[in-house]
Each structure stands twice: as C-alpha cells, then as structure tokens.
Backbone:
C-alpha cells in the first residue's frame, strides 16, 4: 500500500523514466485521457472557465475543450468564446480559399489535357502561347460553346466524345468565326 501522495510521486517518477515524447509515453498519455473521457460524467463540472485568452490576452470565459488532462482535469480552450468564434470563421475562410485554389488547379490541368487532345494549338492560326486564350468551339451547335466547368466531373470517354465535336481555336480566331457566323446569318435572312 502506498499513500496517495506517494503514489503520485511514484507515478511521476515512472512516467519520467519513459522518454517524454516517445511513442509509448504518448500512447499511455492518450489512453489515460481517453479513459477520463469515458469515465467522467460531463454534467459534473462547469463547461466554461475564466482563463487568460491567448488571442485577446484578457481574463475571459473559455469553453470546455471536450477533453481531459491525463490526471483527469477538464481542459478548456485557450481562446475565449468570442476569439474562438472568430478563429473558426478564419479557418473556414482559409479552407474555402484552399478548396477553390485546388479546383482552379484541377480545371487548369484538365484544360491542358483537353487542349493537348485537340492538337495543342489553334486549329486555324496555330496560336499556342496562352492557355487562357484558347477556347473550345463547338462545330455544329453554334450557341453551345463548351464551358469547361460543365465537363469537370465527366468521364474522360464522355469528354473525348464532346471534344471530338469541337475545334480548338484562339480567342481572335473565335471572334472572327463569330463575325463570319453573323454575316452568314444576315445573308441568309436577306435571301
Ligand atoms: Zn479572447
Ligand atoms: Zn487562331
């Protein structure tokens, strides 16, 4: 039998004998924390505590972080409720930006793939310097210019079938083709 305070001393000696951040000691610590989470009734302690917030540096109410220390004390967030809210918003914004950046990169990669499939250059004048200035012009359905974003989640087979109906043209040639189309349309109205 050991006295309570002696037990704590022994326990701390033993845990210090293990390298502090070794996988084994981290695992043991997480197991103790999980044990308290399973064991302690969450309605038996306050869910906010007044602490110094690490963002605004004021003594403010901080929410319970839904975790316990390895010695079974509830852990509270390091930011006050207001700063925590602000931070979540910032994280959400950053996440949105990252997702849209990824989507943009993916669109770019797919566009390169489509352009390469159609020969890599304007089919009328051979222009190939700017990715942005190359467009997909639908040969038969004039009003149905292919919007790349529509094809993003199509299978490659379906995309290929669609691309086969398109000419790769640069922006200038595209506009000239529009002019020609308008001219032809007007002439056919006159006849
Ligand atoms: Zn704060
Ligand atoms: Zn061209």
Residues:
């Amino acid at each position: 039998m050991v006295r309570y305070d002696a037990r704590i001393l022994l326990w701390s000696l033993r845990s210090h004998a293990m390298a502090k951040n070794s996988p084994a000691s981290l695992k043991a610590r997480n197991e103790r924390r999980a044990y308290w989470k399973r064991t302690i009734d969450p309605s038996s302690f306050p869910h906010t505590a007044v602490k110094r917030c690490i963002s605004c540096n004021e003594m403010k109410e901080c929410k319970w972080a839904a975790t316990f220390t390895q010695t079974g004390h509830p852990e509270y967030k390091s930011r006050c409720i207001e700063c925590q809210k602000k931070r979540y918003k910032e994280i959400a914004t950053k996440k949105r930006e990252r997702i849209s950046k990824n989507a943009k990169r993916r669109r770019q990669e797919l566009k390169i793939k489509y352009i390469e499939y159609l020969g890599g250059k304007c089919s009328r004048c051979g222009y190939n310097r700017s990715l942005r200035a190359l467009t997909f012009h639908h040969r038969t359905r004039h009003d149905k210019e292919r919007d790349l974003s529509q094809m993003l989640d199509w299978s490659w087979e379906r995309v290929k079938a669609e691309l086969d109906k398109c000419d790769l043209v640069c922006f200038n040639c595209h506009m000239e083709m529009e002019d020609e189309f308008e001219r032809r349309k007007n002439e056919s109205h006159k006849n």
Remarks:
- The two ends are 110 Å apart (CA to CA).
